[in-house]
Structure formats: structure tokens, C-alpha cells
Design a protein that fits this description.
5 helices, 197 residues, mainly alpha
């Protein structure tokens, strides 16, 4: 009798249990209804976002130009002052929106979160209105079907002024936030280093 063989002559030795192939269990069938519903909701969500984007652009073209016609001529600094104000306001409103939205925590304070949510919604509406003004200031393509673009014909470089005002205000807000953060950090460090009486 050989050491590597089976106890019965003529048979091979059995494989160890780790190499034995067991019949696979039947996989549970996926419910095709859930996948269909999820895919349909995903497609509808994407289409909804595209529709909102189209309304946003069209609103900027129609309502934004109406806002320019109503306010730009009487604004201090004329149309360029109006563009600079709109650019600076857009940066400020987006900053407040971000701070309020980031501070919402329903577990720690429901009233505070509700107030922050209301302020964030107000800021979102203001940002939407200001973005209409910004969209209307973008110059049209030369092959545009619209005969006259009122904002561009009266204030040809107002989009540059608005963009520079937005960037300058955003940089100023970031600088002020950094000063505030460093001041709070140094207060905490001074409180930790001072001996308690």
C-alpha cells in the first residue's frame, strides 16, 4: 500500500476539503422592479436638472435684461456700477449661503437649523436673481439671432467689471475669514497656556 493512495487499491486519494467544489447556491434573483424605478428616477432627476438649468439661462436672458433696463441707468456709477454691485453681492450672498447651509445640524439644534435653513433659502433666491443680472451681462455671440442686446450695446465691458468685482469680493471674504480663524485659534491657545487660578 502506498502512502499517497486511497485505502482501496486502484482508487486515487480524495482531495482536501479546501479544494472540494461544492455546488453553488442559487443566487437570489434581483427584483427588476427596483432597478427600473431607480433608473427611471435617475433619468427624471437628470432631465429635471437640465430643465431647471434651461429655465435659469432663459430667465437670465429675459428677466436679467429687464432688471438692467430698470436699474442700471439710475444706479450710482451707471451700468458699470450696477455690474460691480451685482458681482460683489453675488460673492457675499454665496458666502452666506455656504455658511448657513454648512451649519445646519438637526440633531444639535432644531430651531437654529430651521433659522439657518430659512436664511439659506433666502440667499439662494437672492443668488438666483443676481445670477440673472450676471447672465444678462454676458455679451452675445456675433451670430446671435437677437437683433440688439441692450446691456452689451450700452455697457460693452460690464461683464468684466462684474467678474472682477466677484473675484475681488471673494478674495476679501476669504482674507477676512482667515483673520477671524487665526484670531480664534490664538484665543484658544492663549486660554490653554494661561494658568488657572
Amino acid at each position: 500500500m502506498s502512502i499517497g493512495g486511497s485505502t482501496k487499491p486502484g482508487r486515487r486519494r480524495a482531495a482536501p476539503p479546501s479544494l472540494v467544489r461544492t455546488p453553488s447556491r442559487a443566487r437570489p434573483r434581483r427584483d427588476r422592479g427596483k432597478g427600473f424605478v431607480a433608473n427611471t428616477l435617475g433619468i427624471l432627476g437628470v432631465l429635471g436638472i437640465l430643465a431647471l438649468f434651461a429655465l435659469w439661462v432663459l430667465g437670465g436672458i429675459t428677466w436679467g435684461e429687464a432688471l438692467w433696463k430698470e436699474f442700471a441707468q439710475d444706479w450710482p456709477g451707471g451700468g458699470y456700477g450696477f455690474g460691480a454691485t451685482a458681482g460683489a453681492l453675488l460673492a457675499c450672498v454665496l458666502a452666506v449661503l455656504g455658511v448657513c447651509a454648512a451649519g445646519i445640524n438637526w440633531k444639535t439644534g432644531k430651531v437654529r437649523s430651521l433659522i439657518r435653513g430659512a436664511v439659506a433659502l433666502g440667499c439662494a433666491g437672492a443668488a438666483l436673481t443676481i445670477s440673472f443680472v450676471a447672465i444678462a451681462s454676458i455679451p452675445p455671440k456675433k451670430r446671435s439671432r437677437r437683433a440688439e442686446h441692450w446691456v452689451h450695446s450700452h455697457y460693452p465691458y460690464v461683464w468684466v467689471v462684474g467678474l472682477l468685482a466677484t473675484l475681488a469680493t471673494a478674495a476679501l471674504l476669504l482674507w477676512l475669514y482667515e483673520i477671524h480663524r487665526r484670531g480664534r485659534k490664538s484665543d484658544v491657545l492663549s486660554d490653554l497656556s494661561s494658568p488657572e487660578p
